Amino acid sequence: METVAVRRCESYDQDKVDQAVSMAISDLGGIEQYVRPGDNVFLKINLLMSRRPEENVTTRPAVIEAVVKEIQSAGGKVVIGDSPGGPYNEKVLKTAYKVCGIEGIAKRTGAALNFDTSVAVIKSPLGKMLKSITVIRPLADADVVISVPKLKTHSLTTFTGAVKLMFGCIPGNLKAEYHVRMPEIKDFADALLDICIMTKPGLVIMDAIEAMEGNGPSGGSSRKLNCLLCSDNPFYIDGAAAQIIGLKTEEAPTIRSAIARGIYNVENLRIVGDGIEQFISTDFKVPNKREADMLSTRIPDFMKPFIKRYIKPKPEFNWDKCKGCGYCADNCPPKAIVMIDGRPHVNTDKCIGCFCCQELCMHKAVDIKRPWINKFIFFR
After folding, report:
1. Please, are residues 257 and 190 in contact by the beta-carbon 8 Å criterion?
2. pTM score of the predicted model
3. 3-state SS, residue 324
4. SS3 (DSSP) at 92
5. pLDDT tens string 246-257
6. By the 8 A CB rule, do 361 and 57 touch?
7. What is the dihedral of CA 204, 208, 210, 215, to 10 degrees?
8. Do 206 and 161 form a contact (C-beta atoms < 8 A)?
9. 254, 287 contact by CB (below 8 A)
10. Is 354 helix (H, G, I), strand (E, B) or coil?
11. Cβ partners under 8 Å of residue 311, min gap 6
């Protein structure tokens, strides 16, 4: 059996979060099971972009600080970090740490913030899609990796939690290469599993006090779930989180791939702590069923080019919200977006449907348009 602890926490009051995190880790046997005195611990957070904590795009500082204190109580030395979307450099990191409230954690606890932008290569000949990955160096150098994901919806993978979080270990714009190499969602999901396996998070504490629903991972709305999840198995904590938001297995590509590869089996999921039933949401808003996902799993290859023309979702720009910053064009993996007269325009033939433009838009100016015919083909 694989254990996931679920603990109630109704606010980001630091004392309450400290208590909930401590109880959840204790449910698994205590922090000493994962951190030894002197261990160098890389604390992988969700630092998608420079957004204020209350927007719930990134992991909330109170949860990160509580985990830092747990690690330090076991004698571990903490380095906090991530590779945000877009360029990976010291300036970007400094801004993200400040805006997202992480800078204050370092001042209060003495934990280090990562500014090392060098990289390392991790090899795994048993990977399904990836035999090696390039990652940010502090993760590769750590004795222990602990992750603190945020429970959110995601326009590409439907749901993002512990497994998807580890994609942030790929430095900066190199992430775009993975999207281009694996435009089919089933292949990308398997690549995410490979990355999670290679980066080896030894303990996961998921922030679900306030989650994000709708057009996540950055353009959605906050939704209170009032709980924290904790496990030493990232695949099973995602399985538990999916249950909480009412997500069916077939709707979550990473969970479906984990089942197919024998990594996850719901029959082996054991919930401890406060249980799961009281936190389950029956009306949590998730992105519409992924037409591209359906294409990659159910449509014969020879038919895909013809069918995609009519049912493929496309990014659509809201001119009232768009500021003409060009960030979407700069970070479009296949370079399908160009700026014309200060406005972004997408070449739909080149678009691979990764929706990085929506994910990284600071102004929530990108929507995903689905052809009207899809309403008659796909059902929730």
Report:
1. yes
2. 0.89
3. coil
4. helix
5. 998 888 999 999
6. no
7. 90
8. yes
9. no
10. coil
11. 291, 295, 370, 371, 373, 374, 377
